Amino acid sequence: MKIGNKKQLITAVVLFSLILGFIIVGISVVNEEDKLLEENPVHSLAVIVETYVGAKARDYVRYEFVVNGKVYDGHQNYMPHQQPVDIGDTCEVVYAESNPKISRLLTDDNNFLKIKRKNKELKFFQE
Q1: Torsion of CA 28, 33, 35, 41, to 10 degrees
Q2: Does 74 share its domain with 103?
Q3: 47 and 30 in one domain?
Q4: Digits of tens for pLDDT over the chain (127 positions)?
Protein backbone atom coordinates (compact mmCIF):
# COMPACT_ATOMS: atom_id res chain seq x y z
CA MET A 1 0.00 0.00 0.00
CA LYS A 2 1.31 3.42 -0.92
CA ILE A 3 1.88 6.09 1.73
CA GLY A 4 -0.78 8.37 0.19
CA ASN A 5 -3.38 5.60 0.39
CA LYS A 6 -2.45 4.86 4.03
CA LYS A 7 -2.95 8.53 4.95
CA GLN A 8 -6.34 8.57 3.25
CA LEU A 9 -7.35 5.35 5.01
CA ILE A 10 -6.23 6.67 8.41
CA THR A 11 -8.07 9.96 7.81
CA ALA A 12 -11.23 8.10 6.81
CA VAL A 13 -11.06 5.82 9.88
CA VAL A 14 -10.52 8.80 12.23
CA LEU A 15 -13.41 10.76 10.69
CA PHE A 16 -15.70 7.74 10.82
CA SER A 17 -14.77 7.18 14.49
CA LEU A 18 -15.49 10.81 15.37
CA ILE A 19 -18.85 10.75 13.60
CA LEU A 20 -19.80 7.47 15.24
CA GLY A 21 -18.78 8.81 18.67
CA PHE A 22 -20.83 11.97 18.12
CA ILE A 23 -23.91 9.91 17.20
CA ILE A 24 -23.52 7.62 20.24
CA VAL A 25 -23.14 10.57 22.63
CA GLY A 26 -26.16 12.32 21.10
CA ILE A 27 -28.35 9.24 21.46
CA SER A 28 -27.30 8.68 25.06
CA VAL A 29 -28.06 12.32 26.01
CA VAL A 30 -31.54 12.09 24.46
CA ASN A 31 -32.17 8.77 26.20
CA GLU A 32 -31.08 10.25 29.55
CA GLU A 33 -33.42 13.21 29.09
CA ASP A 34 -36.31 10.88 28.19
CA LYS A 35 -35.57 8.79 31.28
CA LEU A 36 -35.59 11.83 33.58
CA LEU A 37 -38.86 13.08 32.07
CA GLU A 38 -40.46 9.65 32.58
CA GLU A 39 -39.17 9.13 36.13
CA ASN A 40 -40.18 12.44 37.72
CA PRO A 41 -42.28 14.58 35.37
CA VAL A 42 -43.83 17.86 36.48
CA HIS A 43 -46.53 19.50 34.37
CA SER A 44 -46.92 23.26 34.11
CA LEU A 45 -47.67 26.05 31.65
CA ALA A 46 -45.19 27.76 29.36
CA VAL A 47 -45.52 30.97 27.38
CA ILE A 48 -44.40 31.20 23.75
CA VAL A 49 -41.89 34.05 23.58
CA GLU A 50 -40.45 33.63 20.08
CA THR A 51 -40.96 31.82 16.78
CA TYR A 52 -38.04 31.36 14.41
CA VAL A 53 -36.67 29.30 11.54
CA GLY A 54 -33.75 27.09 12.54
CA ALA A 55 -31.54 24.53 10.85
CA LYS A 56 -32.79 22.98 7.62
CA ALA A 57 -35.56 25.61 7.42
CA ARG A 58 -37.47 24.02 10.31
CA ASP A 59 -39.78 26.19 12.38
CA TYR A 60 -39.28 26.41 16.13
CA VAL A 61 -40.85 28.07 19.13
CA ARG A 62 -38.96 29.29 22.16
CA TYR A 63 -40.94 29.03 25.36
CA GLU A 64 -40.45 30.07 28.98
CA PHE A 65 -41.83 28.69 32.21
CA VAL A 66 -41.25 29.41 35.89
CA VAL A 67 -40.12 26.95 38.58
CA ASN A 68 -39.70 28.25 42.13
CA GLY A 69 -39.35 31.81 40.90
CA LYS A 70 -36.68 31.00 38.31
CA VAL A 71 -37.40 31.34 34.58
CA TYR A 72 -36.39 28.43 32.32
CA ASP A 73 -36.66 28.28 28.56
CA GLY A 74 -36.76 25.65 25.87
CA HIS A 75 -37.03 25.27 22.12
CA GLN A 76 -39.21 22.91 20.15
CA ASN A 77 -40.03 22.21 16.52
CA TYR A 78 -43.58 22.88 15.29
CA MET A 79 -45.51 23.10 12.00
CA PRO A 80 -46.82 26.65 11.45
CA HIS A 81 -48.65 25.81 8.23
CA GLN A 82 -50.80 23.30 10.16
CA GLN A 83 -50.86 25.01 13.55
CA PRO A 84 -50.39 28.76 13.87
CA VAL A 85 -48.73 29.88 17.09
CA ASP A 86 -48.66 33.43 18.40
CA ILE A 87 -46.21 34.97 20.82
CA GLY A 88 -47.97 35.05 24.17
CA ASP A 89 -49.87 31.78 23.66
CA THR A 90 -49.53 29.31 26.51
CA CYS A 91 -48.73 25.63 26.12
CA GLU A 92 -48.58 22.69 28.45
CA VAL A 93 -44.99 21.80 29.34
CA VAL A 94 -43.47 18.85 31.16
CA TYR A 95 -40.09 19.17 32.83
CA ALA A 96 -37.86 16.94 34.93
CA GLU A 97 -38.29 17.72 38.62
CA SER A 98 -34.58 17.12 39.25
CA ASN A 99 -33.53 19.36 36.33
CA PRO A 100 -36.09 21.84 34.94
CA LYS A 101 -33.72 22.63 32.05
CA ILE A 102 -34.95 19.34 30.59
CA SER A 103 -38.40 20.13 29.24
CA ARG A 104 -40.79 19.53 26.37
CA LEU A 105 -44.02 21.04 25.22
CA LEU A 106 -46.81 18.49 25.27
CA THR A 107 -48.47 17.45 22.03
CA ASP A 108 -51.75 15.78 21.18
CA ASP A 109 -52.28 12.56 19.20
CA ASN A 110 -51.65 14.47 15.93
CA ASN A 111 -48.32 15.86 17.21
CA PHE A 112 -49.79 19.37 17.52
CA LEU A 113 -48.74 21.51 20.46
CA LYS A 114 -51.34 21.76 23.21
CA ILE A 115 -51.94 25.50 22.87
CA LYS A 116 -54.10 27.82 24.90
CA ARG A 117 -54.50 31.07 22.98
CA LYS A 118 -53.10 34.17 24.61
CA ASN A 119 -55.31 35.88 27.09
CA LYS A 120 -54.65 39.44 28.07
CA GLU A 121 -56.00 38.68 31.55
CA LEU A 122 -53.41 35.91 32.15
CA LYS A 123 -50.58 37.13 34.33
CA PHE A 124 -48.21 34.18 34.09
CA PHE A 125 -45.03 36.01 35.04
CA GLN A 126 -46.03 38.09 38.01
CA GLU A 127 -43.64 40.76 39.18
Answers
A1: 180
A2: yes
A3: no
A4: 666 777 787 787 777 777 766 666 555 555 677 788 788 899 999 999 999 998 777 889 999 999 999 999 999 988 877 888 889 999 999 999 989 999 999 988 887 888 887 654 444 444 3
